[in-house]
Amino acid sequence: MTENRIPAWYTSLRQKHSRVMDALDELGKAVRSEGPLDEKTSHLVQLAAAAAIRSEGAVHSHTRRALKAGASQDEIVHALLLLVSTIGFPAVSAALSWAHDEFADES
């Protein structure tokens, strides 16, 4: 799913609750700038968390953001594979399939 194909529900949410969504965007910027991790690493950490809670939308979003921040597809796959012993193969497999959706859209 490319930036041009943001889910309709998310677009609607941004339109109806723009102040809340803008505040959420600012919070994300603030926490990423608060510490020593670079943008790419930050999105890989958030991608791992999204996979752990099985949030398909967040996996798509952080895969796109990690790619935009310079992560390679191999780095994204590795970040997800590292979770196998923690969150289990089914959750990792699902997250990998969602990440691969983004890889297909990238090419």
From TrEMBL:
It comes from the Bacteria. Pfam families: CMD (PF02627). The chain crosses the membrane at residues 76-99. Keywords: Membrane, Oxidoreductase, Peroxidase, Transmembrane, Transmembrane helix. One of its GO terms (molecular function) is peroxiredoxin activity. SUPFAM superfamilies: AhpD-like. Residues 20-100 form the Carboxymuconolactone decarboxylase-like domain. This is Alkylhydroperoxidase AhpD family core domain-containing protein. It comes from Desulfacinum infernum DSM 9756.
